[in-house]
């Protein structure tokens, strides 16, 4: 059992390395331009390692498409309506800096070109947002008549169109956060009670600071863990 854990950890790390490398290549070249050899070269791994985790390039593309929430959910600390707003603020920021999220969004949009028709990414976001809004409703944050699932699906639809518009209208979606702020400025008066509108923070700088600070802390922890591992190996 003691020996099994490092193998499992290595398998998880290998899968993550493949997924990240594939995301970078898909982000740069799309599905058609992303060859398995190019992905393997980027990951620094063998074909055997890739096919142990993914059956095909299509399977790998699906995994990237369906990993979008991994770029956003870990950064969230709020709940209710604020959590929903924060999802969109983190999403707007991460689309500029995280290839995994960008590739997932790109592949979701062009999936029919490689023979896939999978609504899972949209449905997953709708479910995540519905849960936020159900909490908001239970806390009395929403106006009467606001149906969580309906509103959640609308926000997913709005964000989908918004990022497509931003990708064309600005360099590297630089204006996406401003568009998200405008969306909430227009939406909040129609869905939230006045007291909640007053305390809901729609601030891109707030979530950017949280992500950057947390990223620095994780990098420090990772370096410390690596130093401990090397010390342990040297002592052994």
From TrEMBL:
GO terms assigned for molecular function: DNA-binding transcription factor activity; transcription cis-regulatory region binding
Recorded superkingdom: Bacteria
Domain HTH tetR-type: 12-72
Pfam families recorded: TetR_C_45, TetR_N
UniProt keyword annotations, A-Z: DNA-binding, Transcription, Transcription regulation
SUPFAM superfamilies with a match to the protein in the record: Homeodomain-like, Tetracyclin repressor-like, C-terminal domain
DNA-binding region(s), chain positions: 35-54
Keyword hit for Phosphoprotein: no
Claim: Transcription is one of the keywords in the record: yes
The protein's name in its UniProt record: TetR family transcriptional regulator
């Amino acid at each position: 059992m003691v020996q099994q854990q490092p193998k499992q950890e290595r398998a998880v790390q290998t899968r993550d390395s493949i997924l990240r490398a594939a995301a970078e290549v898909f982000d740069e070249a799309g599905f058609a331009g992303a060859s398995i050899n190019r992905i393997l070269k980027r990951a620094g791994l063998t074909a055997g390692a890739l096919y142990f985790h993914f059956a095909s390039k299509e399977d790998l593309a699906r995994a990237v498409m369906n990993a979008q929430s991994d770029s956003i959910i870990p950064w969230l600390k709020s709940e209710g309506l604020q959590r929903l707003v924060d999802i969109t603020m983190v999403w707007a920021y991460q689309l500029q800096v995280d290839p995994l999220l960008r590739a997932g969004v790109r592949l979701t949009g062009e999936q029919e070109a490689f023979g896939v028709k999978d609504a899972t990414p949209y449905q997953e976001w709708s479910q995540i947002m519905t849960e936020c809004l159900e909490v908001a409703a239970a806390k009395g944050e929403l106006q009467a008549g606001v149906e969580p699932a309906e509103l959640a699906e609308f926000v997913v639809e709005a964000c989908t169109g918004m990022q497509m518009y931003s990708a064309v209208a600005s360099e590297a979606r630089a204006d996406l956060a401003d568009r998200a702020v405008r969306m909430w400025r227009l939406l909040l008066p129609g869905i939230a009670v006045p007291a909640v509108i007053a305390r809901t923070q729609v601030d891109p700088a707030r979530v950017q600071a949280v992500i950057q600070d947390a990223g620095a802390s994780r990098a420090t922890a990772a370096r410390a863990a690596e130093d401990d591992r090397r010390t342990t190996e040297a002592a052994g």
